[in-house]
Design a protein that fits this description.
single chain, mainly alpha, globular
């Protein structure tokens, strides 16, 4: 470890990120359709033939096949290599941020805290992709990310320099349990479901990775981001609805209306806020106390 330079580890993290991105592509496609992530193995969605391992290599496989399937020569969406490449860059960025940036790429990565931060950031940054992609479209959060985050957080806490296993466990139980209780109370008051259980499990995973305080800060920032986005969105939506009524293009009043249509789920706001709060949560709290509360 002492003789391995940073540039080599950045390449390793890029490759790991690209492999994770390839798996996330499977999650985004299969999970909402109720297809197992393991069975059947990778296959062409058109002719159902199994895809050989050499063609499944992230980014390289798509370039090797020139963007067409090997079996039926149908185009393969460029979204796949783009997603894998983006995840690869996020994986390398996780390590680069954890070591404190810098321009000396020949230095080794020695501090245990750097590895603990790199592992946590790797999960937080890459996990945002499937959460946003699946939750925005299907109102679901993959258990492999939410529950997996709890397991990953507990394992990462074993690395010296980060949060302790006790802090990780208390963070998962306190953050997840607290949000579940808050959602339960809101559901009773509003007489409708106010918080999905997927959000609860996702925040529990963040608690395991960041500790209880970091998870609560993430929840607060995500709520603020949600208000910033949803208030203008709601105004625009209501304005369009009113204009449609005036122009006679509104929907039939007797037709059943799905309350979930047009709603933006909360999971993506949590996924976006988490890595920022992991990196700069303490600084944001200091700025808030200094400039808002005047302390």
């Amino acid at each position: 470890m002492e003789e391995i330079p940073l540039w080599y580890w950045l390449i390793v993290f890029f490759c790991l990120g690209a492999c994770v991105g390839s798996f996330y592509n499977v999650i985004v496609y299969r999970m909402p359709r109720g297809i197992s992530l393991l069975n059947p193995p990778s296959h062409c969605p058109l002719c159902k033939k199994r895809i050989p391992i050499r063609y499944n290599l992230p980014i390289v496989g798509w370039l090797w096949l020139r963007g067409k399937s090997a079996c039926c020569k149908q185009p393969i969406s460029i979204i796949y290599p783009i997603g894998e490449g983006l995840c690869g860059l996020l994986g390398a960025l996780a390590l680069y941020v954890a070591v404190g940036f810098g321009t000396d790429f020949t230095r080794p990565v020695l501090a245990p805290q750097a590895w603990a931060n790199a592992a946590a950031l790797f999960w937080l940054l890459l996990g945002a992709y499937p959460v946003c992609a699946v939750d925005c479209k299907y109102k679901l959060i993959p258990d492999s990310i939410s529950v997996g985050g709890i397991v990953a957080g507990l394992l990462i806490s074993l690395i010296p320099g980060g949060i302790t296993p006790l802090q990780s466990l208390l963070g998962a139980v306190g953050a997840g349990g607290g949000l579940y209780l808050l959602g339960w109370i809101a559901t009773k008051v509003l007489k409708k479901e106010a918080m999905g259980f997927g959000d609860v499990k996702l925040l529990a995973g963040y608690g395991a990775l960041m500790g209880f305080t970091g998870a609560v800060e993430t929840l607060i920032v995500a709520a603020v981001l949600g208000l910033i986005v949803m208030l203008p969105y709601g105004m625009i939506k209501n304005s369009a609805k009113n204009n449609g009524a005036k122009n006679g293009t509104a929907k039939n009043k007797n037709a059943p209306e799905d309350e979930n249509v047009g709603q933006i789920p909360f999971g993506p706001f949590l996924a976006v806020a988490a890595p920022f709060m992991y990196l700069w949560g303490n600084q944001l709290v200091v700025l808030y106390l200094t400039y808002v509360l005047g302390e």
